[in-house]
């Protein structure tokens, strides 16, 4: 294998995906490449991935490397963090198998993640999953005790201008299959016109769908300036101690924002906001709700998510994966079956109605006259 191309460098995959282009080589520092990160790179039609860290650490079966491999994109793994000192943005390099060359000189070696290597590592991950699950459960329960204020309501909810009373809310997170799920429920969005809440990058997902977010909730680390400027309101997620890293960015754009001090994830507080403000129904798209989802986000537990869903469960509909219900190809026979099914009761009703009986008798008499009976 030999590949030559220009590099784009960023330790955060989600930031790199915003500016890398087709035919370029991604240089990242990403332990356990997740599905979303993998798909964001594949969409840009890159040539290769050079990872300073372990794409598969063995903690759990992360699917990112398998997805990248399936797309035919090679991964050079564990090259070391000094790769960021040896390369600059837009440097031109050549990859030969597991070796990286710049200006004809070998600068680094890594591990080429072939299909067989990835499969072997994934099997090891499955064996370790039970250990990780035990840790995950323990952490979830431990922090649930500390974060029980989510249930008791001892959290100050920001006074937003958007009116939720007697309306439905759609919370969009840029998670797995979010595009497909949004497309599947497009008629619901058109008919109901729910309040659109984008969680960080989920606001850009709403824009991509041709809509404008009513509220953006998050720590503002992955949402675009464009989305922030177009949103009607912004709610910055702050730590319980009041520290709010995202507020400075919002202010630098000359925008105002509400502060929501709470533990947990931004998608949790987005749902909690809609619930506490009186939304009739909360529909969630792309949210994180499984152990693998949370491990991919680097979290050791899901206490806040567990508690929030426990509180708002009666009003929550999770649309994650709803597109899979509608993947079967459309068949014309379905239309005829529906028409036939509808015609049967109509025909029976029509046959037994007096006006229809009179019409049938007249038609019968007409036919007899025509044929000479």
From TrEMBL:
| Keyword annotations of the record | ATP-binding, Kinase, Membrane, Nucleotide-binding, Transferase, Transmembrane, Transmembrane helix
Does the entry feature the keyword ATP-binding, yes or no?
Answer: yes
Q: Domain named Thiamin pyrophosphokinase catalytic: which ranges?
A: 192-234
Q: Which SUPFAM superfamilies match?
A: Thiamin pyrophosphokinase, catalytic domain
Annotated membrane-spanning segments are: 332-352
- Annotated SteA-like C-terminal domain residues: 320-370
Q: Name any one GO molecular function.
A: kinase activity
Lineage, top-rank taxon, reads: Bacteria
Q: Which GO terms describe its biological process?
A: thiamine diphosphate biosynthetic process
The molecule here is called Thiamin pyrophosphokinase
Please report the organism this UniProt entry assigns to the protein.
Thermoanaerobacterium thermosaccharolyticum
């Amino acid at each position: 294998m030999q590949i030559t191309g220009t590099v784009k460098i960023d330790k955060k995959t989600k930031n790199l995906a915003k500016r890398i282009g087709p035919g370029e080589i991604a240089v990242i520092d990403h332990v356990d490449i997740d599905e979303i990160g993998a798909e964001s790179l594949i969409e840009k039609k890159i040539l290769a991935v050079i990872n300073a860290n372990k794409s598969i650490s063995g903690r759990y079966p992360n699917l990112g490397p398998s997805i990248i491999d399936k797309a035919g994109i090679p991964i050079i793994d564990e090259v070391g963090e000094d790769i960021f000192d040896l390369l600059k943005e837009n440097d031109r390099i050549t990859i030969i198998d597991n070796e990286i060359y710049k200006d004809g000189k070998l600068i680094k070696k890594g591990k080429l993640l072939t299909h067989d290597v990835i499969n072997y590592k994934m099997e090891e991950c499955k064996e370790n999953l039970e250990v990780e699950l035990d840790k995950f459960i323990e952490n979830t329960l431990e922090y649930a005790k500390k974060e029980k204020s989510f249930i008791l309501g001892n959290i100050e909810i920001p006074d937003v201008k958007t009116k939720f009373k007697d309306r439905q809310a759609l919370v969009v997170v840029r998670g797995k299959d979010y595009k497909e799920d949004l497309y599947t429920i497009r008629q619901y969005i058109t008919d109901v016109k729910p309040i659109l809440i984008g969680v960080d990058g989920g606001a850009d997902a709403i824009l991509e769908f041709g809509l404008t977010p009513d509220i953006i909730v998050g720590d503002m680390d992955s949402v675009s300036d464009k989305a922030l400027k177009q949103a009607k309101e912004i709610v910055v997620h702050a730590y319980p101690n009041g520290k709010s890293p995202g507020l400075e960015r919002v202010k630098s754009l000359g925008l105002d924002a509400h502060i929501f001090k709470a533990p947990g994830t931004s998608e949790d507080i987005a749902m909690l906001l809609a619930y506490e403000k009186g939304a009739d129904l909360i529909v969630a798209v792309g949210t994180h709700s499984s152990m693998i989802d949370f491990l991919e986000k680097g979290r050791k537990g899901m206490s806040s998510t567990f508690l929030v869903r426990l509180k708002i469960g009666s009003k929550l509909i999770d649309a994650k994966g709803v597109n899979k219900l509608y993947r079967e190809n459309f068949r014309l026979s379905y239309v005829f079956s529906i028409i036939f099914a509808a015609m049967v009761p109509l025909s029976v009703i029509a046959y037994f109605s007096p006006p229809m009986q009179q019409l049938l008798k007249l038609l019968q008499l007409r036919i007899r006259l025509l044929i000479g009976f």
